[in-house]
Amino acid sequence: MVTVHDVARAAGVSISTVSRALASPERVAAETRDRVTRIATELGYRPNHAASGLRMGRTHAVGLLVPDLENPYFATVTKAVQARARAEGYEVFVADSDEDADVEAELIGALAARTDGVLVASPRSGEAELRAALVGVTAVLASRELPATGSGEPEVPYVCVNDADGVAQALGHLSALGHRTVGVAAGPVSSWSGVRRVAGLITAADQRDVKLVELGTFQPYFAGGVQAADHALASGVTAVVAFNDLMALGILDRLRHRGVDVPGEMSVVGFDDVQLATLVSPALTTVHAPLARLGRRAVDLLLVRLRGGTATSAQLPVELTIRGSTGPVPAGPVN
């Protein structure tokens, strides 16, 4: 096995210079850094992160907390986080809260004790509870915002998608198709993104001749969509905007079982654009969220913090993807 001693001897530098060139390249002269990197590659040297971590008090691992790994949204984010972290020499420990806000603080603490920093995706905890859980933790949020407060608590860096613009695009599309009464199948009240999406729909409806009918709050699963579909049919709406794609798929399935043609009698729009959205018939019209990009950006922000820099929060753009589940408003009432 090639060791750091071998690289140092071949490059004509000290062991500490090799370590700095590979771990903190900005601290080494460009010529020396390039020579060390080239020789390390030629010799096939691979740093022992576990050993260096013990010496420096670093683990070269990051934690990721998600509310539901079975949800394809978080599966996509997790894969992107793992790929980006691995490319930067970090391992990823993943924890799943199972949509339970009460266990998030415990899981954040467990991850923080074993890693250099923690990514917290779509936490369900309230603001005060989340702030308390993140005290002393180098963290970045995904799909959640904790702004600076007047009492001096700093902003926790975050990356999210533009929820308000996404639902505005969806409602604009339905309005252009002639829909004037649109149902809103909202997600859990603990979902920060869900609250933003409902608020965005209300604002967009005020700007158009569209009446919103709030069908209720539902679990962000297929079964939640099944339940929402019955509410939609009872309410007399001609279209439904769902909190996420899983709910929208549940709505499509329930409407099919009840003999309601989509989009002939009811239009359905989701949010996220997970892979399943293209595997149903009709294919789901949905707001495309750049989930892989979100995961990669979250890792980048966390690494900036771990390297002593200032991480700048980001909001990523979204785009409506029109498929077969939306169409012109039906001529008569939906049975």
UniProtKB/TrEMBL annotation:
GO terms for molecular function: DNA binding. The keyword Transcription regulation applies. It comes from the Bacteria. Residues 2-56 form the HTH lacI-type domain. Keywords: DNA-binding, Transcription, Transcription regulation. It holds the Pfam family LacI. InterPro entries: HTH_LacI, LacI/GalR-like_sensor, Lambda_DNA-bd_dom_sf, Peripla_BP_I. The keyword Transmembrane does not apply. This is LacI family DNA-binding transcriptional regulator. It comes from Promicromonospora vindobonensis.
